[in-house]
Amino acid sequence: MSKLAKEDKFLDLSDYGRSLGSILANSLKNTRFTPIHVTFLFGICGLLAAFSIFKEYYILAGIFLILKSIIDAADGELARLKKTPSYSGRYLDSLFDIILNSIFFLVICYKTDSNYLLALIAFFCCQLQGTLYNFYYVILRNKSIGGDTTSQIFENKIPKALPGEKQNTVKILFICYLIFYGIFDKIIQFMDKKAHLVLKLPNWFMTFLSIYGLGFQLLLIAFLLVFNLIDLIIPFFIFYSIFLIILIGIRKFLLK
Structure pTM? Predict the structure, then answer.
């Protein structure tokens, strides 16, 4: 099941795990497994990837990173199949992602004897890249007929709990989301204040944008690990931020 209407679908380079994720979700459709269970499963997979990096099992780490992306795609698919969308699952998914990303960069920094300030900058850049992707993607989803709307364009108000979840849980997870993601959201929204007014984000632009999706970011890390280029990961993600200016410039001056 798609988050977008048919006419808004694009080649998402970060969503390569969707097909296998759908297979996993379908296999769990009539079981007692919930989307939250799957979210915890990808969290475990991410921790195994970090442990593998620490032990210098780089090929295994790459496999776990790809597997994490596949399982990450399955929780949302399962929620749609079971018709149990939730804000709790949406925020928990995001919180797991940023915590795992911070662990990845911390372990990579330790194993490469890198400067911790540079590692922090690389982590910040990585999150900012992902935020740009999510910002534009959520705008597209909210404008798409029948698109997924559990993610808000501007996360500035506690949403009303959906059937099957508790309002207090949604409130707590929303506050945690703001603590972890608030600064990244504010920076991107400041850089492109009128993005939400655009009528259409074309497929070619969204495909270009998807190089900043978390799945593609993890694929790049996996590639560098497998080829024993771990020392390049931190400087790469700092340099990779150059596309922020390019993508925002294209949106502001060409896609109005």
Answer: 0.94
